[in-house]
Amino acid sequence: MSSTSLTHEERTAAEQREADLHHVKLVQIAQISESMRLLQLEIPPPEQVKASRCVPQAGGFTITSTPEDAQHKEEKRGYLELAIQQSPKSPPAAWLWRPKVEILGSDVLVRVGGSFVWPPPTVDPAKIKRLVFVAGGVGINPLISILSHLHRNPQELSRHIEFLYTTRMPSSGNPSSILFLMRLEALFFGGNSHHSFKVFLTRTSTVERLGFPGHDLEAEEARVDRPAAMMNEHQIVRWCYGRIKHNDLLDAIGPLAERDGVVVYICGVPSMTDEFVALLRKAEGMEEKRVLCEKWW
Question: For residue 87, how many other CB atoms are within 10 A of its CB?
Answer without folding.
Answer: 15
